[in-house]
Amino acid sequence: MRFFIRASLAILVSCLTLIQPVHAQKSDAPIQLLLQEYGEIIAKSSRRTIGPAIEGLTASGLPEAQIVLERWQAKEMWFEKDTGLFVFAEEIDRDTIRIFDVATGVEIGPVPDRSFKQLKPNSGIRGMIAAALVQFQLRAPDPEERSIALDAIERDAKASHLAALRAAIDGETDPALAERKRRLERLLTIRFDPDDAVRIAAIEGFAGDLGVDVRAVLNPLVATRVAFAETLPEGAVAVEPGSERLPRMEAYNLLVEDGVAPALLHNDAVKETLVAHIDGTSVAGIQVASLNTDEARALAYAALAEQGLAPPLVTEADVSETLDAYSFFEVFTSAPVPVALAAQVVLQDIEAAVALNQTADLALDALSLASIYFLAAIGLAITFGVMGVINMAHGEFIMMGAYTGYVVQLFVPDYTLSILLAIPLAFMVTFAAGVLLERTVIRWLYHRPLETLLATFGVSIALQQIAKNIFGTQARPLTAPGWLDGSWVINDIVSISYIRIAIFVLALLFLALFLFVMNRTRLGLEVRAVTQNPRMAASMGINPDKINMLTFGFGSGIAGIAGVAIGLYAKVTSEMGADYIVQSFMTVVVGGVGNIWGTLLGATMVGSLQKGIEWLNPSNTLAAQTYMILFIILFIQFRPKGIIALKGRAAEA
What we know:
Layout: H1 2-19, H2 30-37, H3 39-44, H4 51-59, H5 65-73, E1 77-80, E2 86-91, E3 96-101, E4 107-112, E5 116-118, H6 123-137, H7 143-155, H8 160-169, H9 175-192, H10 196-204, H11 212-218, E6 224-229, E7 237-238, H12 248-257, H13 267-276, E8 282-283, E9 286-287, H14 294-306, H15 316-324, E10 327-332, H16 337-387, H17 394-411, H18 415-440, H19 449-471, E11 487-489, E12 495-497, H20 498-520, H21 522-532, H22 534-539, H23 544-569, H24 578-591, H25 596-616, H26 621-638, H27 649-652
Antiparallel strand pairs: 1-2, 1-5, 2-3, 3-4, 6-10, 7-10, 8-9, 11-12
Helix pairs in contact: 4-6, 5-6, 6-7, 6-8, 7-9, 8-9, 9-10, 10-16, 13-14, 16-20, 16-23, 16-24, 16-25, 17-18, 17-19, 17-23, 18-23, 20-21, 20-23, 21-23, 24-25, 25-26
């Protein structure tokens, strides 16, 4: 018995020791007093009523407010049931918690948790606390934390953020964050500032701005609905019933909804009314058997209406007369008229700027596509222009170049180095393949274009099958270096990927290389001689057969380099060459056979035309290509020699 009494006393003393420290905290601290002021609604933790407590903490200016909000959000705040004092706490075990003073953060000690209750804010309350914490984060020492706060405001802006944002602008030391704060402050001013003049000034400051965020804020301000009155209000924009903006029956339904006009009765309602008033074999004195047409039923219904047994039937004449008695006009639904009109003016200015930038973006896309087509067609322009050979296997040389780049990357994991190695290696591989094709097939088919076309078409099928046997049918990756990732973003509308920029630069480099080879080297001189007059060139000691071989190999080698460039942008498959062969021939034919400047102009024309048609019909790229081919056919009818006609053998072919 003594042992039991001693144990009980020990437990009691221990409990008293655990409980006593909670009263040692600063119950008169300002933050504790503030929490006590809102203690009832904090303990209740209802999203509908918690707002004043969070706002009170936020606006208190107390340095402890931020910590209280953060610990509350993290479910680390408790309160004592008997005293109502708030503490921070962490669980020690199932029955014990360690508590801390909310004012100083000093540990008070371990206590049993049965006399305390944990605050467990739901997701809605945690979201409200997060919004309140933003104003503290806006002035945080860490720039990354300030940036996160701005991200939070952009995602879910509140009216309470406006004052906090304005207060945080002047002290911002990071120029980029300062600009973000100023821009965001103007956006919030438009949404939440009660002064219309201030809102209008902020709106006008965004004139010509292409940001999507600006349009997202301004568009709701110009939302309208149709209203009506007996006389048109001064300055109101009239809307005519029967127009596209306000269909005739929609206008009448507005009057019906407001109770100023009787509702239209549909046939089903008329039938139900007639059935309800059948008296034996007749309705309003009209035999039921004769009510087999809409006109007869309308007469019977009119008779019921005259007897006061049904509401009057509204005729088309009644509808017209009622509509003529009212004026319909648009009213702004989301902003006062001056603010809405200012937003409307700025949006019109933005739409003009958007249209201009969309044109610039389309031009950049067209230029990018033109550079791809130019790379794909430049080798074909050489072979077709010099020898008059229709090489249907040209696309497969592009494919071979792309696969060469893929194989190089298997052995050289550094993507930058692998691309630098792949470009000359692809040239050598496809140069050798072109020379082999010329020596084994093409040389026996000169001046026989149909046989050349059929033979090279067969070669293209064979090369595709060989590629499938070696690499399979799945697309293989040709990975661009990391410095080519992403895009050059000029604004929210105009951007272009770095890979396309690289292809454009590569196209310019090959244009310069081609001009140098053709104009500054002996090979170029001999090629031009054979192009202009092969017999005269032969009489001057030039071997046309050798020049044809080297020229075909040179054109094939350039196609291989084009394959490396295109492989960075498109999928590397055995059929990838077929995607470019048609455009390559169109580029060469439109520009002028055998002329490099013609090929450049042809690529620009074909690329611009394709992008323009795709813009007009974005949902059907196949139709866009069909329209483009039809246009090219018409163009050739009027200018069969292309944009720049070539004199010599190519012109005679």
